[in-house]
């Protein structure tokens, strides 16, 4: 098994849940459970637009009365969706709202923190490189103007 943030849903699974979702919409009886299961698959999609759609549906599900859905599963799915988009801070926010006994929570938290730190160091490297380049250019211009 690979990284939770890199695992994707099989298109057949997504298609099956999507058919049920749209069928319930057409019949006017869309349940919160169906919305949740559809959104859960969407956040595991390989396409960014699907992930964004899944996050939007999950946030909508949070505003509804959750009968047969564990709120921790919603938070974990939101954390996964935001993490897959590269928004690790929001991912950690939703992850920390979930119960500490949730299955997969520790692994996802470790991945989100690792990627957040890696991106932080990449940012530091870019700033340091830009600063060094600016200093070299200023030195070059200064020496050119002196000669």
Please tell me about this protein's structure:
The chain is mostly helical and 147 residues long. Helix content is 75%, strand content 0%. The protein contains six helices and no strands. It has helices at 11-27, 32-42, 48-62, 71-85, 88-97, 105-146. Helix 1 runs antiparallel to helix 2 and helix 5 (88-97) runs antiparallel to helix 6. The longest helix is centred in the last third of the chain and has 42 residues, at 105-146. It is elongated, with a radius of gyration of 22 Å. The N and C termini lie far apart (63 Å). 24% of the residues are buried.
Give the topology string: H per helix, E per strand. HHHHHH
How far apart are the first and last residues' alpha carbons, in Å?
A: 63 Å
**Arithmetic mean of pLDDT:** 83
Oligomerization: single chain
Unreliable segments of 5+ consecutive residues: none
Helix share of residues?
over 70%
Q: How many H/I helical runs?
A: 6
Categorize the overall geometry.
elongated
Number of strands: 0
> Hey, roughly how much beta strand do the residues contain?
under 5%
User: What is the CA-based Rg, rounded?
Assistant: 22 Å
Structural class: mainly alpha
Biggest β-sheet, characterized?
none
């Amino acid at each position: 098994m690979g990284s939770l943030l890199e695992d994707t849903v099989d298109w057949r699974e997504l298609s099956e849940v999507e058919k049920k979702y749209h069928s319930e919409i057409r019949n006017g009886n869309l349940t919160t459970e169906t919305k949740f299961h559809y959104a859960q698959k969407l956040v595991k999609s390989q396409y960014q637009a699907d992930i964004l759609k899944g996050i939007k549906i999950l946030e909508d599900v949070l505003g509804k009365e959750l009968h047969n859905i564990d709120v921790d599963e919603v938070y974990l799915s939101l954390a996964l969706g935001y993490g897959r988009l590269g928004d690790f801070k929001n991912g950690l926010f939703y992850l920390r709202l979930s119960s500490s006994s949730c299955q997969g929570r520790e692994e996802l938290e470790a991945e989100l923190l690792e990627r957040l730190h890696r991106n932080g160091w990449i940012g530091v490297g870019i700033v340091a490189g830009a600063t060094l380049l600016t200093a070299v250019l200023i030195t070059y211009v200064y020496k050119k103007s002196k000669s």
